[in-house]
Here is the input.
Amino acid sequence: MRDLLFILTALLTLGFAFYAAFSRNVIYSAFALLASLSGVAGLYVFLSGDFLAAVQVLVYVGGVMVLFLFALMVTRGIEIPAASNPGRRAALALLAIVPFLLASAFFISAFGEGDVGSSGVLAAHGGGGAVYAPITATVGRSLIERHMIAFEALSVLLLVALVGAVAIVRRTILTTEGKEKSDIELAIVPASSSSANSDPSGEMR
Amino acid sequence: MITLPVVLSISALMFAAGLYMVLSRTNMIAMLMGIELLLNAGALNFAAFAFFGGNVEGYVMVLFIIALAAMESVAALSIIFTISRSFRTANIDRASALRG
Here is the structure.
């Protein structure tokens, strides 16, 4: 039963990941990516990462993908697949991932020969592994005991990214408003093929 | 069924999908989605090694990767928003000049 669920989750994750990679429409790609990231949360559950699954759903499915969809919706002309997503380097990209897949197959088969879980380098760090147990308390203790500085640095980095994103977008909106106004002033003399037809300030011509 | 090589293979296939997405797309937001797939495949590897190796450090690293990926997508989306406003397109081949 557990194996069946695992196979189902893995197929769901990989299927949606490849659908996101091969779909012609960017909005379909975004929704497929949403499903694929939810599938990764399911895979974390099978790897005894209950807290990770919760964080994955909260941050990715609830935060990042909403941000992606919002960014897609405000981009101009995204609803036309041919214009929004031309994929003309597809053959070269397929050629590029073949060596990667060969190399990873080589390394994974090397892992398959030695039983890593019970003996070997990884087991020396403590425990046999592959045991289902709640990890939240252990992860939290490790986060504030051994990784305190990295944790605090990450919080500062998040603050910097937030302030930087607001600063960049705010300056864009200010300068773009000025530019569209000058576009309108320029469009008085030549033919009126300006892009300001949806602008409410286009009335002042 | 749930063994280390199986999980590593799932992660490698997911990484290949993300790599194809980053390389073949010309839309900047779609390329960023491919980067998210790459980061998730790497995080899945960390979780797999933490589970089968029995140490907790991999789980902590997954949390760091998730936080960094969220931060990266916020910063990149704000830059993409700026570029697509000034070039009026999100196509990465047509937005190749540094001066807007």
Summary: Chain B is about 80% helix and 0% strand.
